[in-house]
């Protein structure tokens, strides 16, 4: 577990958060390549009800995006490929799922 924080230009730091990869949160998504043009649903599922879903995150070569706990990609395209994860918050900790790659076939 490692502490993380934000820091502004003057050096003022936010409160620390501990972030670690955990089996307390699961990203549900297709394991195999999906066909271009199909709809794909990703969902973030915490193991315990007391955990609050923070977001589903996507990292691609050019940027990072965040989505709600259930995210449907309509008419999936090659540009939707990337590495996805999800995170939950419990007290002052952010717990992150494992990272999964979404691959699109048939283009």
Task: Tell how many strands the DSSP assignment holds.
Answer: 12
Briefly note the CATH topology name. Answer: Immunoglobulin-like
Q: Uncertain segments of ≥5 residues (pLDDT<50)?
A: none
CATH class designation: Mainly Beta
CATH architecture, by name, is Sandwich
Q: Quote the beta fraction.
A: over 45%
**What's the N-to-C terminus distance?**
40 Å
Instruction: Characterize the biggest β-sheet.
Output: 7 strands, mixed
**CATH superfamily, called what?**
Immunoglobulins
Number of DSSP helical runs: 0
Question: Which short descriptors sum up this protein?
Answer:
single chain, 107 residues, mainly beta, Immunoglobulin-like, 7-stranded mixed sheet, 3-stranded antiparallel sheet, 12 strands
What does this protein look like?
By secondary structure, the chain is mostly beta strands. The chain has one domain: Immunoglobulin-like, CATH 2.60.40. Helix content is 0%, strand content 51%. It has no helices and twelve strands. The chain has strands at residues 2-4, 17-21, 25-28, 34-35, 40-46, 52-59, 64-67, 70-73, 82-90, 93-96, 100-102, 104-105. Strands 1, 2, 6, 7, 9, 10 and 11 form a seven-stranded mixed beta sheet that branches. It is globular, with a radius of gyration of 16 Å.
Record the SSE blueprint:
Layout: E1 2-4, E2 17-21, E3 25-28, E4 34-35, E5 40-46, E6 52-59, E7 64-67, E8 70-73, E9 82-90, E10 93-96, E11 100-102, E12 104-105
Parallel strand pairs: 2-10, 4-12
Antiparallel strand pairs: 1-2, 3-5, 5-8, 6-7, 6-9, 9-10, 9-11
């Amino acid at each position: 577990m490692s502490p993380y924080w934000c820091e502004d230009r003057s050096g003022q730091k936010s409160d620390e958060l501990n972030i670690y990869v955990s089996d307390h949160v699961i990203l549900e998504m297709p394991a195999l390549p999906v066909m271009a043009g199909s709809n794909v649903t990703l969902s973030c599922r915490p193991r315990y009800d007391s955990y609050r879903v923070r977001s589903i995150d996507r990292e691609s070569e050019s940027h990072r995006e965040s989505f709600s706990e259930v995210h449907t990609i309509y008419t999936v395209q090659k540009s939707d490929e990337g590495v996805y994860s999800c995170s939950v918050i419990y007290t002052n900790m952010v717990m992150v799922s494992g990272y999964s790659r979404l691959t699109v076939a048939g283009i």
